Amino acid sequence: MSENELNNTYEIYKYNEFNEMTSFESNKESKWEYAYLPNGLRYRKSNATNFDRYIWDRNGNIIAEMNGEGNLTNKYVRGNKLISKNDNEYFGYDGHGSVVNISNESGKSIKSYDYDAFGVELNKDANDTNLFRYCGEQYDNETDSIYLRARYYSPSVGRFTTEDTYWNGSNRIYGDKEYKDGEIKYPDITASLQAENLYVYCMGNPIKYIDKNGFTSEVEAEKIIKDNAIL
After folding, report:
1. Inter-residue contact 118 to 158 (CB < 8 Å)
2. Number of domains in the chain
3. Does residue 192 belong to any structural domain of this protein?
4. How far apart are CA 175 and CA 168, in angstroms?
5. 87 lies in a domain?
6. Which domain holds residue 211?
7. pLDDT single digits (tens) 44-70
Protein backbone atom coordinates (compact mmCIF):
# COMPACT_ATOMS: atom_id res chain seq x y z
CA MET A 1 0.00 0.00 0.00
CA SER A 2 1.20 3.50 -0.83
CA GLU A 3 -0.22 6.69 0.67
CA ASN A 4 0.31 10.30 -0.40
CA GLU A 5 -0.82 13.28 1.67
CA LEU A 6 -0.50 16.83 0.37
CA ASN A 7 -2.43 20.04 1.01
CA ASN A 8 -5.05 18.30 3.16
CA THR A 9 -5.76 15.69 0.50
CA TYR A 10 -5.03 11.99 0.58
CA GLU A 11 -4.44 9.25 -1.99
CA ILE A 12 -4.23 5.54 -1.22
CA TYR A 13 -2.83 3.04 -3.73
CA LYS A 14 -2.94 -0.72 -3.10
CA TYR A 15 -0.96 -3.38 -4.96
CA ASN A 16 -0.96 -7.18 -5.13
CA GLU A 17 2.01 -9.53 -4.96
CA PHE A 18 2.62 -9.05 -8.70
CA ASN A 19 3.14 -5.31 -8.26
CA GLU A 20 -0.18 -4.59 -9.98
CA MET A 21 -2.29 -1.72 -8.68
CA THR A 22 -5.55 -3.20 -7.40
CA SER A 23 -7.27 -0.11 -6.00
CA PHE A 24 -7.07 3.65 -5.68
CA GLU A 25 -9.03 6.07 -3.54
CA SER A 26 -8.75 9.68 -2.44
CA ASN A 27 -10.85 12.41 -0.88
CA LYS A 28 -11.56 13.59 -4.43
CA GLU A 29 -12.37 10.21 -5.98
CA SER A 30 -14.50 7.28 -4.86
CA LYS A 31 -12.67 3.98 -4.62
CA TRP A 32 -11.57 2.49 -7.94
CA GLU A 33 -10.69 -1.18 -8.30
CA TYR A 34 -8.59 -2.83 -11.02
CA ALA A 35 -8.34 -6.45 -12.21
CA TYR A 36 -5.80 -8.14 -14.49
CA LEU A 37 -5.52 -11.15 -16.76
CA PRO A 38 -2.94 -13.88 -16.05
CA ASN A 39 -0.64 -12.25 -18.63
CA GLY A 40 -0.72 -9.01 -16.64
CA LEU A 41 -2.99 -6.96 -18.92
CA ARG A 42 -5.67 -4.96 -17.15
CA TYR A 43 -9.11 -6.15 -18.20
CA ARG A 44 -11.36 -4.26 -15.78
CA LYS A 45 -11.62 -1.06 -13.78
CA SER A 46 -14.66 -0.02 -11.78
CA ASN A 47 -16.04 2.12 -8.98
CA ALA A 48 -19.49 2.60 -7.45
CA THR A 49 -20.94 4.09 -10.64
CA ASN A 50 -18.63 2.96 -13.47
CA PHE A 51 -17.64 -0.43 -14.87
CA ASP A 52 -15.29 -0.75 -17.83
CA ARG A 53 -14.10 -4.06 -19.24
CA TYR A 54 -11.36 -4.13 -21.88
CA ILE A 55 -11.00 -6.64 -24.70
CA TRP A 56 -7.41 -7.09 -25.90
CA ASP A 57 -6.05 -8.49 -29.15
CA ARG A 58 -3.07 -10.84 -29.26
CA ASN A 59 -0.71 -7.91 -29.82
CA GLY A 60 -1.60 -6.36 -26.48
CA ASN A 61 -3.90 -3.62 -27.78
CA ILE A 62 -7.47 -2.81 -26.77
CA ILE A 63 -10.02 -3.47 -29.50
CA ALA A 64 -13.26 -3.05 -27.53
CA GLU A 65 -14.82 -1.92 -24.25
CA MET A 66 -17.83 -3.39 -22.45
CA ASN A 67 -19.99 -2.31 -19.51
CA GLY A 68 -21.03 -4.29 -16.44
CA GLU A 69 -23.95 -5.91 -18.28
CA GLY A 70 -21.63 -7.23 -20.98
CA ASN A 71 -22.83 -4.76 -23.61
CA LEU A 72 -20.38 -3.33 -26.11
CA THR A 73 -19.76 0.36 -25.42
CA ASN A 74 -16.82 1.12 -27.71
CA LYS A 75 -15.10 -0.73 -30.53
CA TYR A 76 -11.80 0.20 -32.13
CA VAL A 77 -10.19 -0.36 -35.51
CA ARG A 78 -6.40 -0.62 -35.54
CA GLY A 79 -3.60 -0.69 -38.06
CA ASN A 80 -0.08 0.19 -36.96
CA LYS A 81 -1.85 2.63 -34.63
CA LEU A 82 -5.41 3.15 -33.47
CA ILE A 83 -7.46 4.32 -36.46
CA SER A 84 -11.04 4.82 -35.34
CA LYS A 85 -13.59 4.45 -32.56
CA ASN A 86 -17.14 3.26 -33.27
CA ASP A 87 -16.66 3.98 -36.98
CA ASN A 88 -17.36 7.69 -36.45
CA GLU A 89 -14.32 9.08 -34.63
CA TYR A 90 -10.87 9.10 -36.24
CA PHE A 91 -7.54 9.62 -34.51
CA GLY A 92 -4.70 11.88 -35.66
CA TYR A 93 -1.15 11.69 -34.29
CA ASP A 94 2.01 13.71 -33.95
CA GLY A 95 5.45 12.32 -34.79
CA HIS A 96 5.76 10.87 -31.31
CA GLY A 97 2.64 8.73 -31.62
CA SER A 98 0.50 10.86 -29.30
CA VAL A 99 -3.14 11.51 -30.15
CA VAL A 100 -3.40 15.21 -31.05
CA ASN A 101 -6.71 15.29 -32.88
CA ILE A 102 -10.01 13.44 -33.15
CA SER A 103 -12.22 14.10 -36.17
CA ASN A 104 -15.69 12.97 -37.17
CA GLU A 105 -16.84 11.22 -40.34
CA SER A 106 -16.82 14.44 -42.34
CA GLY A 107 -13.25 15.22 -41.29
CA LYS A 108 -14.18 18.00 -38.89
CA SER A 109 -12.04 18.21 -35.77
CA ILE A 110 -14.07 17.55 -32.62
CA LYS A 111 -11.22 17.35 -30.10
CA SER A 112 -7.56 18.34 -30.00
CA TYR A 113 -4.74 17.67 -27.54
CA ASP A 114 -1.44 19.23 -26.58
CA TYR A 115 1.20 17.89 -24.19
CA ASP A 116 4.45 18.94 -22.61
CA ALA A 117 7.61 16.88 -23.13
CA PHE A 118 6.76 14.36 -20.40
CA GLY A 119 3.12 13.93 -21.43
CA VAL A 120 1.29 16.35 -19.14
CA GLU A 121 -1.88 17.24 -21.01
CA LEU A 122 -2.24 20.99 -21.44
CA ASN A 123 -5.66 22.63 -21.06
CA LYS A 124 -7.15 19.29 -20.03
CA ASP A 125 -10.91 18.82 -20.18
CA ALA A 126 -12.08 17.07 -17.00
CA ASN A 127 -15.15 15.73 -18.82
CA ASP A 128 -13.21 14.14 -21.68
CA THR A 129 -13.89 10.38 -21.85
CA ASN A 130 -11.44 9.52 -24.64
CA LEU A 131 -9.26 6.66 -23.41
CA PHE A 132 -6.20 7.07 -25.66
CA ARG A 133 -3.96 10.14 -25.45
CA TYR A 134 -0.21 10.62 -24.81
CA CYS A 135 1.86 8.17 -26.90
CA GLY A 136 -1.47 6.67 -28.00
CA GLU A 137 -1.83 4.88 -24.66
CA GLN A 138 -4.57 4.59 -22.03
CA TYR A 139 -5.07 7.57 -19.77
CA ASP A 140 -6.69 7.17 -16.34
CA ASN A 141 -8.29 10.40 -15.21
CA GLU A 142 -8.77 9.27 -11.60
CA THR A 143 -5.03 8.79 -10.98
CA ASP A 144 -3.78 11.18 -13.69
CA SER A 145 -1.56 8.38 -14.98
CA ILE A 146 -0.99 6.39 -18.15
CA TYR A 147 -1.39 2.62 -18.12
CA LEU A 148 1.52 1.04 -20.01
CA ARG A 149 0.65 -2.64 -19.41
CA ALA A 150 3.48 -3.58 -17.03
CA ARG A 151 3.29 -0.35 -15.01
CA TYR A 152 1.63 3.02 -14.61
CA TYR A 153 3.40 6.21 -15.66
CA SER A 154 2.77 9.58 -13.97
CA PRO A 155 3.41 12.47 -16.41
CA SER A 156 3.21 15.08 -13.66
CA VAL A 157 6.38 13.72 -12.03
CA GLY A 158 7.90 12.14 -15.15
CA ARG A 159 8.35 8.77 -13.43
CA PHE A 160 6.76 5.35 -13.17
CA THR A 161 4.85 4.70 -9.96
CA THR A 162 6.47 1.30 -9.31
CA GLU A 163 9.88 -0.29 -9.87
CA ASP A 164 10.90 -1.90 -13.15
CA THR A 165 11.07 -5.68 -12.58
CA TYR A 166 12.41 -6.45 -16.06
CA TRP A 167 16.12 -6.12 -15.35
CA ASN A 168 18.33 -8.82 -13.88
CA GLY A 169 22.04 -9.41 -13.36
CA SER A 170 22.58 -10.38 -17.00
CA ASN A 171 20.36 -8.21 -19.18
CA ARG A 172 21.13 -5.05 -17.23
CA ILE A 173 24.70 -5.37 -18.56
CA TYR A 174 24.37 -7.07 -21.94
CA GLY A 175 20.78 -6.29 -22.82
CA ASP A 176 18.52 -8.85 -24.51
CA LYS A 177 20.78 -9.82 -27.39
CA GLU A 178 21.28 -13.56 -27.66
CA TYR A 179 24.94 -14.52 -27.94
CA LYS A 180 26.27 -17.78 -29.35
CA ASP A 181 28.66 -19.90 -27.32
CA GLY A 182 32.12 -18.37 -27.44
CA GLU A 183 30.89 -15.08 -28.93
CA ILE A 184 32.32 -11.96 -27.34
CA LYS A 185 29.74 -10.08 -25.29
CA TYR A 186 29.59 -6.31 -25.37
CA PRO A 187 27.84 -4.18 -22.74
CA ASP A 188 24.55 -2.63 -23.84
CA ILE A 189 24.73 1.02 -22.79
CA THR A 190 21.00 1.58 -23.30
CA ALA A 191 20.13 -1.35 -21.04
CA SER A 192 22.55 -0.19 -18.37
CA LEU A 193 21.09 3.32 -18.38
CA GLN A 194 17.55 2.02 -18.00
CA ALA A 195 18.48 -0.40 -15.22
CA GLU A 196 20.31 2.34 -13.30
CA ASN A 197 17.04 3.93 -12.14
CA LEU A 198 14.09 1.57 -11.81
CA TYR A 199 11.50 4.37 -11.83
CA VAL A 200 12.85 6.52 -14.66
CA TYR A 201 10.70 7.01 -17.78
CA CYS A 202 12.43 6.82 -21.17
CA MET A 203 15.83 7.39 -19.56
CA GLY A 204 14.72 10.94 -18.74
CA ASN A 205 14.44 11.78 -22.45
CA PRO A 206 10.82 11.28 -23.57
CA ILE A 207 11.35 13.36 -26.70
CA LYS A 208 13.80 10.84 -28.16
CA TYR A 209 12.45 7.65 -26.61
CA ILE A 210 9.09 5.94 -26.12
CA ASP A 211 8.02 3.13 -23.78
CA LYS A 212 5.12 1.01 -25.00
CA ASN A 213 5.10 -1.68 -22.34
CA GLY A 214 6.44 -0.24 -19.08
CA PHE A 215 9.62 -2.30 -19.34
CA THR A 216 11.99 -0.90 -21.96
CA SER A 217 12.54 2.32 -23.89
CA GLU A 218 13.30 2.53 -27.57
CA VAL A 219 13.93 5.26 -30.10
CA GLU A 220 10.71 6.35 -31.80
CA ALA A 221 12.30 5.96 -35.24
CA GLU A 222 13.13 2.32 -34.46
CA LYS A 223 9.53 1.71 -33.37
CA ILE A 224 8.21 3.13 -36.65
CA ILE A 225 10.53 0.83 -38.62
CA LYS A 226 9.39 -2.21 -36.62
CA ASP A 227 5.71 -1.34 -37.03
CA ASN A 228 6.05 -1.06 -40.79
CA ALA A 229 8.37 -4.01 -41.34
CA ILE A 230 7.20 -6.78 -43.66
CA LEU A 231 7.52 -10.03 -41.74
Report:
1. yes
2. 1
3. no
4. 10
5. yes
6. 2-164+199-227
7. 999 999 999 999 999 999 999 999 999
